[in-house]
Amino acid sequence: MSDVILEMRNITKTFPGVKALDNVTFSVTQGEIHALVGENGAGKSTLMKVLSGVYPYGSYSGEIYFQGKECRFQDIHHSEELGLVIIHQELALIPYLSIAENMFLGNERAKNGVINWNEAISKTNELLNKVGLHESPNTLITNMGVGKQQLVEIAKALAKEVRLLILDEPTASLNDNDSEKLLELLLQFKANGISSILISHKLSEVNKVADSITILRDGATIETLDCHKDKITEDRIIRGMVGRDIKHRFPPRESRIGETIFEVRDWNVYHPLHEDRKVSTNVNINVRRGEVVGIAGLMGAGRTELAMSIFGRSYGTRITGAAYRQGKEVDISSIDKAISNGIAYATEDRKAYGLVLIQEIKNNITLANLEAVSNAGSVINEPREMAATMEYRDKLNIKCSTIRQLALNLSGGNQQKVVLSKWLFANPDILILDEPTRGIDVGAKYEIYTIINRLASEGKGIIVISSELPEILGVCDRIYVMRDGKIVGEMPASEASQEIVMTLIMTEQEVYNDNLK
Amino acid sequence: MTTLNNAKSNSSVMSTLSGIFRSNIREYGMLIALIVVMLFFEVRTGGILFKPVNITNLVLQNSYIVTMALGMLLVIVSGWIDLSVGSVVAVVGAVAAVLMVNLDVNWVLACIICIIFGAAIGAFQGYWVAYLKIPAFIVTLGGMLIFRGLTLVLLQGESIGPFPVGFQKISSGFIPDFVGNIFYLPGLHLTTILLGLLLSILLIVLDVRSRKNQQKYGFEVTPFYFFVIKNIVITVVVMGFTLLMASYKGFPNVLILLFILITSYSFITSQMVIGRRIYAMGGNEKATRLSGVNTPRLLFYTFMNMGILAATAGLIVAARLNSATPNAGDGMELDVIAACFIGGASASGGIGTIIGAVVGAFLIGVMNNGMSIMGVGIDWQKIIKGIVLLIAVLFDIYNKNRNA
């Protein structure tokens, strides 16, 4: 057994009314990648906040030993001084500052308050090299993709002479290429003796890089698996996470597909700021009654842009093309027109675009269709509204104390169900679901899939945009593949495999990479 | 055994009460603060504060702040601010004076023109904010200068007055005593008492109905004893206030106007689709737009509404001063904005209530009034008001953090 670098003993943390962590014990050995997995709300983030000092000593019970010494962190600077650096899911970079400025924010290379920019920039270059990012230190963060930003965050951690790196869902918003790169970086750090804690919902990644896996469930440690001793399968991990076997990750379904319910033809969209950049080119897609259609592609392939441009031109300029509902051309030139023509779009970013977080669940559900719970004089009938939203709470199994609870206080999966409820309440024929299961746990994903199946069986047409290929293959009847704003492939799910779809998605990307070399 | 049971039920009563209190701490906290401040000044002014004539004065002095706070609350809930309202008060007063005094226009017609003028000002600023996407802080800062300047142009640096008597009555008149003409009771305004009684009954009927409605749908309601106590307290407060007013000259005209405005805006914000949408827009503009709400148009209307209410306040101020002066409404925007924030509105939008803003406005009004009676100088009055604003907002943040 190698040395233990971190040991957390009997950590218990309670919030008013809930025990978030119950006697959790967790240890990391020197130079390993230790994955921490569990459903949303299992206590992973809370545990890491205790560890990094976000919850100061005294607000929890239990002991933390780091490099053999007991630590009583008062705040996050305290833990960073010892080389314990956490990278949060939501990146903490300042968009309108350059890489170099971000790199040493709060840790400036300065003498008497005057910054030595030469030193800062050369040091930044050094750090960027270490993480394999070839960008000028003067590049503004806002001009870089999420993948590169993630690398800057890691370089920033290195600037602090990190001993233990904690990554909270680092690949949640990265495409497969960037994820791969990031994981390799972790392996490289491991070779240099830096330990990492990796929190992730993507079990394939966990399996690829982790040396050991600790599973949390309901605030308690369930088990720690040693990846070198036995072969750990994803199903094995899932079993630990949910406390039961999920035989099938996707609910079975029989599709009964009817006539074409919605179609767009020759759809062209330009970028709203760079008006000569085309983000959708001659797109033709359709969806039939009772059908689930998937749109696969990398991030930046133009899937969200396409969906939003269809949904009342909420994205893009100079949009041309025609939309047909049940064979008749419809006007979907504004969002309310799109909604009244039976189209709904559930966004990929539920916090920024999907929910009014500071409002009640009830108000969120009825927002897109307040007419349905109000009288002719636009007066809301609150009892009717309560009854209607309670029905959705039960139907979609939204876990909340009351429907007057704020959306803010719900877990990701339940927030997603509120977004879905909102659109179901608007009673659409065509539902566009953009990354419907992003950042939510396995159990809630299964529930979302079940809902999708039920909606399809009710005769709605459903378009699912997803970056997770197994999901696309698991829930869809038919798949479109998108690349650079174009539809580059279409096939029934029964004839598709991850390899086939991936090849279509990546083809040009590969060529592009070859040219670079 | 019985004592044990008693203790148990007692503690459960206490816990429900404290639960009700905690979930509404903002509203109750505000009311309690208002009552404490009123009692404080009642004692310190040697009983002058609650004198009927002073209570009447309080209403008259604060009517325009309350009027504008209604519109400002909607603007703040939308996530913006309007700094121009003080200047709008002045320019509307100036227009009213030019029309009524210089041009001899009928005062009712002149009022209508002034309200339309206010709507146009609001629409102008709303267009810049909602469609040209210029931050409201900048647009209304510009408006503040433009309309103050316009006032000076219209008045040519002088005060214009006096106004027609009918117009003055808006601010200085009292409702006629129909009932008192039939049954005469010395020293009491009977119509006022009758209106107070009707209001008390109406409030109780509405509350009973809403409770029944909630029960019909099987929702949890507050315990019955709490319901009874609440209604008794409200009735006592309403009737006490009514009696005070009745023993002077009765309800002022402007109070009736305020009552109509406050109840309408309360209703719009809490019960109507447009109100719900304004709150949603302030909470998350993008999500609201993607839910099919035309948010630029909604924001435009919010500013237009502010213009209308600022114009109304401008007329009240002009009628009260009985002249249009170049520096009317100077600094008023600050009192109006402070009223909203003291009343619990959030500077980042999406949170705030009409009742909160009204209570906030009266809290400021009572402090102004009480301190003036006590002879506190204008300098210290400002310092104390500033501190109260900070404490009220601190209280909010503290509560929010504790609940999170």
List keywords for this structure.
heterodimer, A: 517 residues, alpha/beta, Rossmann fold, six-stranded mixed β-sheet, 17 helices, disordered C terminus, B: 404 residues, mainly alpha, ABC transporter involved in vitamin B12 uptake, BtuC, globular
Helix content bin of chain A = 25-40%
Q: Which CATH class of the largest domain in chain A applies here? A: Alpha Beta
Query: Could you name the ranges of chain B where pLDDT drops below 50 across 5 or more consecutive residues?
Result: 1-9
Give the low-pLDDT segments of chain A. Answer: 509-517
Instruction: Note the total helix count of chain B.
Output: 17
β-sheet strand percentage of chain B: under 5%
Proportion of strand residues of chain A: 25-35%
Q: Give the number of domains of chain B.
A: 1
Largest sheet report of chain A:
6 strands, mixed
Side by side, the strands of the main sheet of chain A go 6-9-10-3-11-12
Pairing-aware structural class of the strands and helices of chain B? mainly alpha
Shape of chain B: globular
Mean pLDDT of chain B: 89
Note the gap between the termini of chain B: 39 Å
